[in-house]
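Can't paste images in this forum, so I'm doing it all in text. The chain is below; anyone willing to post the predicted structure tokens underneath?
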Amino acid sequence: MRKINQIAVLSALAFATACGNTNQNQQGGDQSKKSNAPIVDLTIDGPVTNNKHLFLRIVDDVKTDSSHVYTARSVFKGDTVGLKVEVVNMIPAGIIDDQANDDMGFTKGKIKISSIGAESDNFIKALGTIYEIPASGSFSTATILPTVFSSNKVNVDLDKTATYSFKLFLDQKSGEPAEMFFNVDTYKKSVEFQEKDPKFRAPFIAALQGK
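Text version of the structure:
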């Protein structure tokens, strides 16, 4: 299993937190919460100037028996962009006694990323502009299953108000996986991506397109 260094762990832990109100509806066995918090711009300043930070507001939160399915949207240059992220509840902590624990921290299939249609295609276009690299075509029609490292000292309880941090390894068809820091913030009602290194920009786009 891929090793994760201490600097990357600290960076992921530093990546996070603020607020949003919700209304709750029930459909069958699942619970859906729609957020009243405003949709905001996709990009915000990250801790490192050159590392881009992407913010998407959770506008719908469907709770299943074992996970939360988040629909997240933002705005970029007048276009609505978005995607769907399913996060399994109670992902084990990956930081044990202040040390990264590979055996506990790494999982596959605990976070799933998928398209919501035209808004996800807009997300791909927005990434091309933000990263200043060519990006055309659509978001993958297949669900994306990154390898996940949980950069958390506690198990991920998505029913609580908290910020949970992860490191994602997103496979592309050629080359090394794209590495991205990822947050789920149940207080701000957001999902957030921050690049580990600009060299992963093109691989990140390729992974989201299934290329």
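The first helix runs from residue 6 to 14. The longest strand covers residues 53-63.
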